[in-house]
Amino acid sequence: MTSTYTLKLAHINDTHSHFDANRLQFTITEQQQELTLYSHSGGYARIGYQLSQAKLSAKANQQSFLFLHGGDSFQGTLYFNEFKGKANSDLLNLLKPDAMVLGNHEIDAGNGPVLDFLNDIQFPLLAGNMDLSQEDQQKTAKLSGHHNLYDYDTSSQTAKYILKPLHDKQVAIIGITLDQMKEIARPDEDTHFINAIETTRRTIAKLHEKGIYHIIVLSHLGLDQDRVLANEVDGISVIVGGHSHTLQGDFRDLGLSNIPYAEKVNHTPILHAGKYAETIGICDVSFDDAGRVTDISGGNFFMLDQQFILQAGEGEVCAENYLAIRAKLDANPAIFWDGEDSLVQQTILQKYRPSLDALDNQILSFVPKNLEHTRLPSKALPHGSEIAPWVSRSMYHETKAIGMQVDFALHNAGGVRQSLNKGQLSLAEVIGRILPFELPLVTYQIQGQYLFQMLESAINAATNNSVIGTGAGSFPYTYGLKYFYDGRQALGQRIVKLEIMRPANGQPLWFDIDPMQHYIGVSSAYTASGKEGYSPILQSDWQHSVDELTLPEAFIRFMSRTNTLDDILEPEVHYTSHRS
Predict the structure, then answer these.
(1) Which of 61, 316, 386, 424 shows the smallest number of beta carbons within 10 Å?
(2) Which whole-number Å values give the CA distances from 501 to 386, 399, 480, in the listed order?
(3) What is the Cα Rg of the chain in Å?
């Protein structure tokens, strides 16, 4: 007789230090009138409350319960800038995850912050393909052997794992992170990452030998690579993922995505829960004796304010509109309301929030309309991000303002984190949300032929229009450099036109890049290191650090002088998809 094993599973990912509820905008149609709804969702106190409710439900229904974090707790807001991970570990301890997988942003600044995090947390950090066998045993930030870290076991070539009870069985949890970590983050030189697929395959075989068939892979690979993992490796019961900021579920009623929750690949459901602690995934999972999922129900849930703002594009918003929308929200199964865990909220407000409040009062400029940030061009935004070109413009002008020669600026999409809403722009908004990475700027002299190669390589990597993609964050945005990319062309010929700006009498004039000529650019130190498809930048004649400026400082100085973003930047991104 086949038995059924049930589990209530809660999951979050890519929370990026968003401890407070986030301001969100939804589009809702009511009686053929399109309305914009402004509210706040999520944050750690609301997540804490929903976790407590889920645990009570699991207990009442005699279910096992697991709460998992899909990685990237670090970076993202002023909380991280101010407290460097201490608030992250403190507040996650209050939420009590059963496990978290190592994300790439945990290791942005090397192994030291990971060690500090490991010393503070009260739950396991899984990094089953992180090989520390060559780690310098004399170094200060030594990770190998840490009791909270479940890394790669070189003797068996498998991931270390944790076991949790599942009725009369056990469920194994494996943590697998990006094997391209050295391409997109900054691990120490003695830290290596083993192939994610092969490590998972060997670990599952080892678990099967031990009679363990209920296996969860806690992944920080992104949805596309999770699909590859599920397709190529048999025996994974469930993948709980992160990295790609994917919000699964049908949210068309809110003007958002419609991506299947618990999408199945090779019989394996894949679960992702969006980003920035705006949503929480909660589902009931049923397994058979062999570890295969027989049923899964649930989804991702927003946690909204009881009160919200409605705005009409045309016409007036009346009380009847508000009541009708409230009734729609009440009936929407993907919406919870704003219950809070009081301990988590008090900890945020009393221990961490006071240090941030002063920065909110420093106003830099005014944003006259909503400016959207998207990493890749799309039908809605054919030239891509409306923010990243302003960031590149600020790098260009502020580097020139301190007396350095610059012909163009280039910045990768992943270095900009959020859209800008209409209204006053505060210092806190810039360093806490828009540009949270305090990266130095670097100038470099590079020959034109390598500019062609660099732009194509970065776009190929961002769009997976290459052998191995590194994610949409590598997509390049420029100022003073205009490129035309056609993904339908042969490899090496996709930048079909590349132009440089030469100001004349206050007006920009554009000239073709000469492949043999040398040009001076400015980028962040991250981009200048050649990661995520930017390796041709390493062919530069020279690179010099701009000691006076970091990436956010350039934008802050530029915005303080500009006062308002009231003019339109000429598009410098011209992109044709491979699928066109």
Answers:
(1) 316
(2) 20, 16, 5
(3) 24
Among candidates 352, 309, 403, which has minimal Cα distance to 82?
352
Per-residue pLDDT reduced to its tens digit, 258-311: 999 999 999 999 999 999 999 999 999 999 999 999 999 999 999 999 999 898
Produce one character per residue of 112-137: b if its CB has 16 or more CB atoms within 10 Å, e if not: ebbbebbeebebbbbbbbbbbeebee
| Angstrom distance (rounded) from CA 241 to CA 218 | 6
CB 437 within 8 A of CB 109: no
For residue 186, give the 3-state DSSP assignment: coil
- Residue 341 main-chain phi, psi, to 5 deg: -80, 115
Q: What is the dihedral angle through the alpha carbons of 197, 202, 205, 211, rounded to the nearest 10 degrees?
A: -110
468 and 382 Cβ atoms separated by less than 8 Å: no
Q: What is the 3-state secondary structure (H, E, C) of 348-365?
A: HHHHHCHHHHHHHCCEEE
> In this structure, are residues 554 and 425 in contact, taking their beta carbons and an 8 Å threshold?
no
Task: Inform me whether the pLDDT recorded for 568 exceeds 70.
Answer: no
Mean of the pLDDT values across residues 430-454? 90
Match 């610059």 to its residue by tokens. Answer: 406
Give the mean pLDDT of 445-463.
Answer: 94
CA distance 103 to 242: 8
The SS3 call for residue 206 is helix
- If you search the block for the tokens 């090779």, which residue do you land on? 266
What is the helix, strand, coil percentage profile of the chain, to 5?
A: 30, 30, 40
Q: With contact defined as beta carbons under 8 Å apart, do 12 and 99 qualify?
A: no
φ, ψ of residue 459 in degrees (nearest 5): -70, -40
Query: Amino acid identity of 457?
Result: S
Cβ(162)–Cβ(172) below 8 Å: yes
- At residue 580, the pLDDT reads 36
Q: What band does 203 get if pLDDT is binned at 50, 70 and 90?
A: very high
Mean pLDDT over 542-559 rounds to 90
Would you say residue 419 has pLDDT above 50? yes
Q: Which helix H or strand E contains 179, and what residues bound it?
A: none
Residue 325 — φ and ψ, nearest 5°? -70, -40
Report the candidate in 460, 456, 481 with the shortest Cα–Cα distance to residue 469. 460
Classify residue 558 by its DSSP letter: H
Percent of the chain with pLDDT over 70: 96
Q: Is the pLDDT of residue 579 over 50?
A: no
Rounded to an integer, what distance in angstroms lies between the CA atom of residue 185 and that of residue 104? 6
Element (H, E) at 409: strand 408-412
